[in-house]
Amino acid sequence: MDKDTLIDTSREGVIAEMEFQCEGRTINWAPERLVIAGYTGKDQASVRKHIQELETLGVPAPKQVPMLYDLSPELLQTSESMRVVRNDSSGEAEVVLLDINGVWYIGLGSDHTDRVLETVSVQKSKQVCAKIISKQLWTLDSIMKHWDEIELKSWVQENGVETVYQSGSLGAFLGPEHLLDLVAKRGYLSSNMALYCGTLPLRRETFHFGGTFKAELFDRKNDRKITFTYETKLLKDAEEEEQYGKTGTGVYGL
């Protein structure tokens, strides 16, 4: 091979920097780790009940509670759209903790998940979907004293009408100190990491697949909000549907 045609691999594995806004400042940051925390509710009796309900739907029970899922940091993005292969994935509003050069910030994210693949492997179902995160951040210190009061909400659009999908407060979850201590004890804590901290129950019986997903983090005490909206778009799939089974049901064909 001619030297002029050699591929430059000097930056292989280097993640492009993301740009955020925080209290009037621009922050550029390249994530080095992404961890999704699940089953993080303070009411562990309700968490166990929820796990049993998921098992009846074919979702495997976690080996630990709370459960931590180590994902590729390349999944993080701030765009207003994401692409999926089939219309059987859905978003979940979550507060996100970010270690940016040694300082902790709070943002808003969506743990978009493939609900069919989830019946095979929860980690795989999360790994195959992009993880939307807000462009706006707050410093964690600025909300620590009233963490439980911060409101989290999401909406979906059905037939052009915006409907509340999730609603609650961060008081429903284990606090940031508890979660970060757990992450450290299990060996996941690292510099420049993003930690998704868990989601709220749905305000309905079934998932909403595709379309537009909107989320909001509201700090009522300081009268400020973090929001984002993104649209899920389907990729053109040339493969036969029979290879994967019926859309939205059954087990993903591996």
From TrEMBL:
It holds the Pfam family DUF2848. InterPro entries: DUF2848. This is DUF2848 domain-containing protein.
